Amino acid sequence: MRELLENWNLVEFNYLSVLVRLLLAMVCSGILGLERTRKRRPAGIRTYMLVCIGATVVMMTAQFMNQHWGGDPGRLPAQVISGIGFLGAGTIMMTKHYRILGLTTAAGLWASACIGLAIGVGFYFGAILTTLILVLVVVLVDEFEKQYSKNLHRVHVFVILTDIVCLKSLIQYMRSKDITVGNVELTSSSGVSGIGLFCVLKLPRHVTQDEAMQLVTEYHDVIFVERTDE
Questions:
Q1: N or C: which end of the chain has fewer CB within 10 A?
Q2: What is the pLDDT of residues 110-150, one digit of tens each?
Q3: How many Å apart are CA 126 and CA 21, to the nearest integer?
């Protein structure tokens, strides 16, 4: 592959290599962004492209400055690695019921910036291979994680009860269904009257996660219930 890149004059810093690097950054980040767009996440294909292309330009600018004026070629790319955290933090949000969303998107943006840096320095093989591996992670591992979670005999939930005194009766009710309520953490409920709590439902083998959620939902003192491990 090294010989092929040298024959096409893509190893050296020139007009052709700049064009190829920018196009490759657009393609690699677009592939990653498609998966986020498909799931309607805050940062989709356009955001991923902009981050990766921007990182590529920064790396090439650092090379250009080093060739003409000297200095540390890693100074600008280092700022991308740390600075992208601010953009990633903007995709992380907490719902009114304290469910955190956007961590995968934030990590994907950071990885997209790293791919852009690799492309910008001419590390084509590493960038392409990383893109393929990340696609496998966000697609295949996501499905594996969902199937694995369904087979677990426990569910993490957030519940809003009408009053704190109802907690004991809820625990007794679930126990009558062979379900243990554990790891209870009380919290305030935003925008809804009542008391909120996080807990773990430990299920017997004959009760599925969906059935357990249905039992909690139908309990008369429960105002709201939501899974927090999805």
A1: N
A2: 899 999 999 998 888 899 999 999 888 887 877 776 676 66
A3: 13
Domain boundary among 110, 130, 149: 149
Q: Token pair for residue 35?
A: 């998966």
For the chain, the residue count is 230
d(CA 227, CA 206): 20
Q: What is the dihedral of CA 84, 89, 92, 98, to 10 degrees?
A: 160
Domain boundary among 102, 129, 149: 149
Positions of the chain with pLDDT lower than 50, given as ranges: none
H or E, element range at 154 = strand 154-161
What are the backbone dihedrals phi and psi of residue 2, each rounded to the nearest 5 degrees, phi first?
A: -60, -45
- Read off the CATH number of the domain in which 201 is found: 3.30.70.260
The sign of the dihedral angle between the CA atoms of 124, 126, 131, 132 is positive
pLDDT digits (tens, 9 = 90+) for 161-179: 888 888 888 888 888 888 8
